[in-house]
Amino acid sequence: MKKPNILFIGAGRMAEAIFSGLKQSGHIGTVTISNRSDSRRLAHLKDTYHVETAKWQDVVSNHDVVILAVPPASHPAVLKELSGFVTSQLIITVAAGIGPTQLEEALPQSPVAWIMPNTAADVKESMSIFACGKRVTEDDRASLQLILDAIGHSEELSEEQIHKLTAVTGSAPAFVYQFAEALQQTAKTYGLTSEQATKLVVQMMYGSVAMLKDGREASALRDQVTTPGGATAAGLDVLKEAHFDELLNEAVLAVNRKAKEQAK
Ligand SMILES: NC(=O)c1ccc[n+]([C@@H]2O[C@H](COP(=O)([O-])OP(=O)(O)OC[C@H]3O[C@@H](n4cnc5c(N)ncnc54)[C@H](OP(=O)(O)O)[C@@H]3O)[C@@H](O)[C@H]2O)c1
Questions:
Q1: Which of 78, 109, 122, 158 has the lowest CB atom count within 10 Å?
Q2: Which amino acids bring their CB within 6 angstroms of ligand 1?
């Protein structure tokens, strides 16, 4: 496969996470970045990552893939303008709520895809979910996979599933940080400094996740630390009485309700 030339429209945090990973991968051609108005940021990114910068309208025809890394609200205008420029390029958006159906409505001749990364893309540990439109070819898929691999791990789902599961991969990291912060606060009540509390909680979480990543079941790992009737069991009983599982489910449903309202 020819190394794809990749154009970014939007050069914010998510674009930077993706092209910094892509530049390390070495399997791509030219990377060109563009934004709306912040020329100082473009110059800084050019110096840091050795990418090209341009007005996207001037260079889109020289690129195989266009990544839309602009806010969801900027999509209608950008897609409208883009429709006058694109031919066979793969068009990818990373925007919340903008699925292949909406992209295909705006660009009926183009192969399109939707990637939902999460903030861990910054450290190349994103759990990205993605869906492809009807015109995506095998070559397009290979380019898409390069991009997904540059920021971490990925799973292909249906468009409908992505609308629902962005709550689990995209929003739930906030639930995890809430959990970490709460335990750090508790640790500090026993006289620890902030640094000590952070170290204890972060390594505890990191180790627990490492065991899960090793392929072990969450329920088996939980049982392994929990002697029936013992001290850990007493702690788990408190979580059960407070309906911990139902609360998490409720939190996911609340994210989805709000996202649906915002999409209207
Ligand atoms: N950050 C995340 O963790 C994350 C996770 C999942 C998905 N996303 C999605 O990624 C997209 C970008 O998010 P971000 O966090 O990178 O945002 P950001 O840091 O605010 O960057 C937005 C970029 O879009 C550019 N832009 C805005 N309107 C434009 C237009 N009409 N034409 C050209 N460029 C335009 C801005 O340029 P100027 O600065 O010149 O205005 C800026 O470079 C969003 O759709 C978001 O939903 C982000």
A1: 109
A2: 9-15, 35-38, 69-72, 74, 77-78, 94-96, 117-119, 170
Please give the CATH superfamily to which domain 165-263 belongs.
ProC C-terminal domain-like (1.10.3730.10)
> How many A from CA of 11 to the centre of ligand 1?
7
What fold does the segment set 6-156 form as a domain?
Answer: Rossmann fold (3.40.50)
> Contact, 136 vs 126, CB < 8 A?
no
Q: Which atom of ligand 1 is found nearest the CA of 117? A: 6
Question: Ligand 1 centroid vs 72 CA: distance in angstroms?
Answer: 8
pLDDT value at position 222? 98
pLDDT of residue 27: 87
Beta bridge partners of 9: 34, 68
Burial class (CB in 10 A: 0-12, 13-18, 19+), 74: middle
Q: Whose CA is nearest to atom 32 of ligand 1?
A: 36
pLDDT in tens, 19-37: 999 988 888 999 999 999 9
**pLDDT tens column, 156-170:** 999 999 999 999 999
**CA separation for the pair 90, 75 (Å, rounded):** 16
